[in-house]
Known about the structure:
Structural class: alpha+beta
Largest sheet: 7 strands, mixed
Radius of gyration: 29 Å
Number of strands: 11
Helix content: 40-55%
Oligomer: single chain
Amino acid sequence: MSALQAIITSKLSTASSTRGTRSTSSASIRGTRRSRDNYYSAHPHPQSSQRAILHSSSRAATAAAAAAALTLVLLLLASNLPVSQSATIPMPPQSSSHSSSLREELLGIIGRYPNGHLNDKIRDEFSAKLSQYSDCCPSDVDKSKDVIFAIGKSVFGVALNDGDVNGNSSSGDANANANANGDSNVDSNGSSNGSSNEPAAKKQKMNQETQTQTSNVDSNGSSNGSSNEPAAKKQKMNQETQTQTQTEIKTEIKTQTESKAEKEAPVIIDFEYMKQFMKDVFLTYGCTPEQAETSSEVLIEADKRGIDSHGLGRLKPIYCDRIDKGILWPNKPIHILKETETTALVDGNLGLGLYIGPYCMQLAIDKAKKYGVGFVACQNSTHYGIAGYYASMATDAGCVGFTGTNARPSIAPTFGVEPMLGTNPLVFGIPSSDEFPFIIDCATSINQRGKIEKYARDGVDTPKGAVIDVEGIERTDTEGILRDMVLGKCALTPLGGAGEATAGYKGYGWATVVELLCTAFQSGPFGEDICGVDRETGKPKPMPLGHFFLAINIESLCSLDTFEKNTGNLLKALRESKKSPLGPGRIWTAGEKENDARVFRTGEQGGMKVPGALQKNMIDLREAHPELKEKYAKFPFEE
């Protein structure tokens, strides 16, 4: 039995024999029974939870046991404690009735609305109540270990200053008691908290009636004589009230989501227009015309190939914002530190990787054309865009191309949970007699960070199995994943997934190969040294990345025509092999889908789709730079 199981079993046993705590436990269940299924899916949830005042003794005991277990799990997840036999589990603080009520309401929000952090009103409600809870909780509460503040920061993005703690709330607060026993949406002044579209007066009246009806029943579920209504009738009424409130919230979320989607619908814009805009942005930041032209070409090629995670979507957050933060420089010289006829070691001096990458691959190609093989290692570079671009440079020159780059730590080793390796693409380009070369460009993780950023822009969950957190739980909450990856609390899984059952050790091994080739020649940093964030201060810091580039001149070994025909014959045989009756009826080879996307987008589609989030990025860049504002007074999507 694991340490965690032992602790939970102990608490279950204690809870089962202690009926006096069933009211508090039932309230905890209300807050946690529907907790984020994408974050806590590894743990069982109670199937039902009614108000503690209406539970029978046996049901209350069971609820108390389940609540104790769930509370322990929540606290372990949020406080990031090591699970060991000697671990000290921080239990919810003893506090005034008002602070307890607020705590239950916060847990209720977390449990009832798994995607609540994506809804403005629910997020605002959570933020307001968290602020109230912070003001009135006892002074001995350690907020750094309190599950509520941890979830508020990591999931809802609400970080409060510790400040002075005020715990003078009256324990006899009537509204606090009403909220503790029900799901009231009206504060002590009767005003609406915004979680429903009903008038405040109607909500206040409904909650006053609920408070009056429930106040006549004590914590043991027995009537005190002031009400003759059967408990079952009251229970049904309370269920209907709660269901009505939840339905209103769900309807509001759906309406808001549909309205937002309609407002932010993608607009198709010509590629030449978009490339020129990106080039002008780089020029505005101080790049030379050559640097700006090359950098914008690498980005627009990603969008043409359908690799939307590495095109326009990276312009502002990866390049412009990092220049603004002083961790990447737009116009730095490139130095060749050591060179032979077939090799070179290059220093990029933390300039634009979008320019450094093409420079290094061209150097490798030039050497290969003269000596048969060219290999270039690079240090102190930055994000260099889609790695497949460099493999294509080699195939266009009649060479086999091979490249890779490390990145900020994202992948956990097999059987580990700490991000140690970058997504580290392992990329090959091979010329073919087909209309397109064989280009295999993929990360050594199931997903890369750019793909998760795209999930966030699209408002969808991350597929299960692609991300693991420090507790070993497979996460799907995209926004929370992106926040926790910055904090080092989440890691991507390697190709094959976590563990060895589906051969995750293979992806782990290939990721390590790339990391070695990007650091061993260069004496370059890895892991925490290239995470981009100073863990002590939280401030951004440079990420000096390493790359490698290999070009093999095909004519040094055989004629290019023969090589391409041999390659094409093999790839054609693969595509024409027997198809699965359950599949799409087609087999692709590497680079084919990107070519299909390129043909469609540059032809029939007539440009690239620019979604609402990227439209906003373009507007923000324009507004921040007078030169852009003058030239781009109105974007196509503003007409």
